[in-house]
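Many introductory courses stop at the sequence. We go one step further.
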Amino acid sequence: MTNQELKKLNENLWSAATKMRADSDLKLNEIDTPLLGLIFLKFADNKYSLIESEIEAELKAQEDSRRQRPVHEIAIEKCGFYLPRKARYNYLLNLPEEEDIAKAIKEAMDEIESYKPELKDVLPQDEYFALSRIDSSLLKTLLKNFSDIPVTASGDIFGKIYEFFLGKFAMSEGQGGGEFYTPTSVVKYMVEVLEPYEGTVFDPACGSGGMFVQCSNFVDRRKNGQAMGAEKNLFVYGAEKTLATVKLAKMNIVVNGLRGDIKQANAYYEDAHDSFGKFDYVMANPPFNVKDVNYDRIKDDKRFNTYGIPQNKSAKAKKTKDGDVNFVPNGNYLWINLFATSLKPNGKAALVMANSASDARHSERDIRETLVKKGLISQMVTMSSNMFSTVTLPASLWFFDKSKEVLDFETEKENIKILFIDARNVYRQVDRAHREFTQEQIWNLGVISRLYEGQENRFIELVDLYLKNVNDLLPNCLSSFQTVIDSYNTFFSSFKKWFESKEFSKEEALHDEFEGLLDFFTSEGLPKNHFVQQYERVFTALNTYFEKGLSTNKAQSEVELVLKDFEEEKRTVKKAIEKAFRALEKNYKIADKGFKEKDEKLWKKIENFRNLTTSLERFIEHTNERINSEPVFTEDTEGKSAIYFIKQIQWLQERFPEGKYEDVIGLCKVANYEEVKEQDFSLNTGRYVGVVIEEDGMTEEEFVEEMIRLNTELNVESVTSLELLSTINKNLDNLTDAYEV
């Protein structure tokens, strides 16, 4: 499923949900649980369908055995849950309208819970009666709409649909009423750095369980051909203060094949999992800048006081309805403490935190110094703004590694090092208000951590993967190039034939536009030789690389030089093609409007210009340097071309030419203890990595087009501004006149 298809599906599903709300007497926050319950049921059915053949094969294999295991045991072993016949989505979807759909869904949910104790009292049941109270057809309609979620929608696709709905519900209540859901791409990057293959994972502010799901997806990607239903050796622990969200998290981990324990708890005051020194991994996106945590209730908690508790400069208590209360000035460092103290001796952690925490002063600064001296902070990453759907503020990622803890500062301080990465310029612009990491950007940033750890083989493996993608997609470059050239030349030839056969009047021949047509047809069609030659060079270089198994940085660099020549030739060719198309379109419109006569046979033989531009669009897609925002032939490229992967290779090799870690100005820097001390223990990434001005990656034509677009937008805004100013002046005049009267 492509991004555009997913976006359309989300919009259609949300439209159905809001229509259902309009047709019922329920508030929006009263329909979120049953709606998300149906999404859960649909995704569970999708996953079960994929495993069903394995379950049936196991049943068949046991037919002659002495002990035939029941189907639900096999299903739970392979899939994580069991769906009886009456709990299958299609069974509910195909029930006749006169049936009590609400009762059928309730019974389906109850059956699922009966075979999965972890879901006891979690799935929505009685809520469906409220939805059908006014209109009994509402649930039937909703089942039909949600059936549009493709059977292949699993893993990330379901997570994105789920996240979309959760975000919509949160935003409908206002930012204060909902939670700030961590974007999938940010979580993927956190997981890419931590690499939680197995063990215990703790999220003390787990929300709907998004961190756990991405851990599950990471393990799925690294299973190396194991059976689809193979059990993951991960156990997740979560705490969440909102009961409804706890239920969503439990649904989420079950349907993603995870074992775990999610509890309702306020992490400030309740230690639901006895977390001190317990977990292999800790991940969270906790609430930022909370200012109402009762200091007296947490001051003796070793989860928070091991490295120091943030305190106000003055000890003056604040008056509340419960009497005088001492509050923690800011809860950020309570979370930072909780992460550091929840780890096992070799544990690792990642948390999302407000940028301001990196430079916070007073008691927070002292805690930061202690953490640095303990060697617990392994990595700091600053992200761009607009990475979160509900807030625009930039955030940082803090990474901890308990295995590097310093026990004797004076003798071990030389071992204290922190990797700083500035990822503020690494993102894909989704729309005007939102940004995200692409999968390749996640891998590129993640491999910096691997290089820092001395795993140079991971760098080579990533470049090798990109070279394979180039090899697979490169034929699309050539075929789309040949198609666009042939289409242009055929069109040009027919158009020229019309021009040369037409008898123009003396009046027409004197027209300025006729001279333009005459000049245009003195040109020849577009050639293809040089581009094809460069393609053949790349094809030969890639074949040699793969046939001889030359997986070394030196061999990859040599291939990249050939790819660079090809990519530069592509830029030249693309520019020439686009220029030729603009000239062709301009003269075609001139001829069509000013010189073509009705029912001309030769004119009718000229192909429709729209068909010609389709070939150009396909060529642009298959040679785009970036992910296409609206890819046309998505079944081929999914928005990514061979050139796109060439750019990924170049990004990596330009920064790490030896295939080993090195500090890169504007991107990454390993700072030692003395350097951090010199910055007064600030962990602001910009203080360490420096600044570099990077190329925007635009061609000259793209730059001109972008400037024209921005200028047009500026002109529109200027006109609007003048209109508003006029309206304000009129209103002020009316107010003044009324006052004078």
